[in-house]
Structure formats: structure tokens, C-alpha cells
Amino acid sequence: MKIPKIDPKIKSFLDELYEFGKRDGGMWNVPPETAHFLYLIVIAARATRILEIGTSNGYSTIWMALAARNHKGLVATLENDPKKVIMARKNFVNADVSRVIEMWQGDATHMLKRHSGLFDLVFIDAAKKEYRKYYEVAYPMTRQHGLLIADNAISHADEMRDFLDFVDKDPRVLTSLLPIGSGLKVILKME
């Protein structure tokens, strides 16, 4: 499979979207190095079913969707804030990836309980104190040898301590802390 480079117009749009997110403190986008990592991991894992908890304005969603469409994948993304949902949907159209994204609006734990199916990759980037709750709901929805990736594992380690301690002791998984961006906790589901 040949992976095409990202179209320069889309890359320029992503750069603008990231800068907008930095100016508007309510966006909380991942840094570009994290976005690039997510793009690469989706391709490397050949992930076709991806779940993102915490869409914001869609910056990381678009990166994963660009990778997923190379192998006919789909990104399901959850956001509770109605203003961010509207903004993200517009951004998905502008980046020409709306056909590979399924947008869900509402509380993540409630929304996930209503959906079935297994995901190859789950990316968590939402309310830091809720990560353990997100993990407990998303874990059963992750396929064997699937990945769960939690953002901000270094920058917000204190807020996420309950989650980080829990996954490090979970015998069903292997974990690694990567110093990419704000810190990524990568979790491989073994059973």
C-alpha cells in the first residue's frame, strides 16, 4: 500500500486550525508532533475502526481520518460541547474527510454504552480527571491487541494519577509512556 503525502492545501488548513486552537484557549488541540504520531500509528496499525474521546475543533480527528482513509477506515469521535461539534463538522468538510468521520455529541460514558463493536485504536483527549472512567468504558470496546492512547500523560500526570496508576497495574495490558507532545500513555490490550 502506497501512502500518499498529505495534500499541501490540507496541511496548510491543519496548520491554521492548530494556530486557531492555540489562540482560542478552549480548543486544547494536541501539538503537531502528537498529531503526526497519531497519523503514523493509524497507518502502521492499519486501524480501520478508530474512536476518539474529545473532538474539540477536530484537529486530531482530521489527522487520524487522513490516515484511516488510506485503508478504508472510519473515525468515530465524541464531543460534548455543541459549539465545538458545529466547528468540528465544518472543519471535517473543509479538510475533505467528513465521509470517513462519524461525529457523536454527548457525554462520552453515556454515548459509548449505547454503541457496540470493537475498535482497533482508541484515543483519549478529554477531561483529565475522567480518564479512568473513559478507559473502563472503552477497554471492552477495544479489540485484542488494539491500542488505547491517552494524551497529556506527562503534562497533566497529577490530574490523571488515578488512571495512570490503574493502567500501570492492569494485568490485561502492556503500557508505555512516550515523551511526545504532552506525553502519551500507550496501552496495548493483551487479552
What does this structure look like?
The structure is a single chain. With 191 residues, the protein is α/β, with parallel strands linked by helices. It has a single domain (28-189), classed as Vaccinia Virus protein VP39 (Rossmann fold, 3-Layer(aba) Sandwich). Helices cover 39% and strands 23% of the residues. The protein has helices at 8-23, 32-44, 59-68, 82-94, 108-113, 131-138, 161-169; strands at 49-53, 74-79, 101-105, 119-124, 142-151, 173-178, 184-189. Helix 2 packs parallel to helix 3 and helix 6 (131-138) runs parallel beside helix 7. The protein is globular. The chain starts with 7 loop residues before the first helix and ends with a strand.
Question: What's the CATH architecture?
Answer: 3-Layer(aba) Sandwich
- Global geometry: globular
> What is the C-alpha radius of gyration, as a whole number of Å?
15 Å
The portion of residues forming beta strands comes to: 15-25%
Low-confidence stretches: none
Provide the spatial order of strands within the biggest beta sheet.
3-2-1-4-5-7-6
Q: How many strands? A: 7
Describe, in short, the structure shown.
The protein has about 190 residues and is of the alpha/beta class.
Question: What distinguishing features does this structure have?
Answer:
23% strand; Rossmann fold; 39% helix; 7 helices; 191 residues; seven-stranded mixed β-sheet; single chain; alpha/beta
How do the helices and strands line up, and which of them pair or pack?
Layout: H1 8-23, H2 32-44, E1 49-53, H3 59-68, E2 74-79, H4 82-94, E3 101-105, H5 108-113, E4 119-124, H6 131-138, E5 142-151, H7 161-169, E6 173-178, E7 184-189
Parallel strand pairs: 1-2, 1-4, 2-3, 4-5
Antiparallel strand pairs: 5-7, 6-7
